[in-house]
Amino acid sequence: MIPASFDYVRPGTLEEACRVLGEAAAAGDDVKVLAGGQSLLPLLRLRLAYPSALVDLGRLPELRGVEDRGDHVFIGALTTHDEVVRSGVVREKTPLVALATATVADPAVRHRGTFGGSMAHADPAGDLPAVALALGCVFVVRSGEGEREIPAAEFFVDYLEPALEPGEVLVGVRVPVLGAGWGFHYEKFHRTAQSWAIVGVAAAVRQTGGAVEEARIGLTNMGPTPVRAEAVETALRGVDLSPVAAGGTDPVREACAEADDGTSPPADLHAQPDYRRHLARVLTARAVRAAAG
What we know:
It comes from Streptosporangium fragile. This is Xanthine dehydrogenase family protein subunit M. Keywords: FAD, Flavoprotein, Oxidoreductase. The protein is an alpha+beta fold. It contains twelve helices and 14 strands. The protein has helices at about 15-25, 40-45, 80-85, 90-95, 95-100, 105-110, 115-120, 130-135, 150-155, 230-235, 250-255, 275-290; strands at about 5-10, 30-35, 55, 65-70, 70-75, 140-145, 145-150, 155-160, 160, 170-175, 180-190, 200-210, 210-220, 225-230. It has a five-stranded antiparallel β-sheet with strand order 4-5-10-6-7. The termini are far apart. The model has no long low-confidence stretch (mean pLDDT about 95).
């Protein structure tokens, strides 16, 4: 299908982009921001989105790149998934981001799709929003009125709805560096290598003396937004991580039996809610064990 007609604007500076978006917001125009286009272009072709204009941010190099800023890593919104995966800073300082980003779609999409675009699309079936929630990332946005920061817990408002106001541009994401003693894993169940996750689990685990001291768990595709599995995080505190003897009870699996608490998984052609709940429990236990090493 051919997209509906729209105006095309390609600003040369971030200030110009903010001005164009601000003017469109003031006029009540429906304007979409184009980054890598891997999510937006299919919607345009299917006429599920028909904006009056597209604002292409492709000529804004200041929105691209990875910076080590000590207590956090800053990832520019236009940094491609492939650039994130290949970044030595990301792999060393924030390995959970690298692990999850490597599972996004396929190499072709990862070379065009952007880190910020995936976040701003706010698809609960996407791999990165759950990671941002688990790590406590902060989103930096800019408009003609200045800059503000949005915690991940407040950024994903509803299905495909981020907390971006009309006229705002996502500049980048601050990813906290958790430091020594943490282990990470992203567990994903999907039909084919390039498909969306039926369920995914982002896990960060800190252990002391062979027991869990702290855990952070984010769930993919278990509701209209990514979900923080707080019941599991609480249940895992102090749990022994020793190998389980054959026929014995696994305390990690018992703690992760609460992974689906507070979730509202969707029903679609790929899975029903009860199956997704089962997957959430099983995959969370696997992810915690893998993160703990």
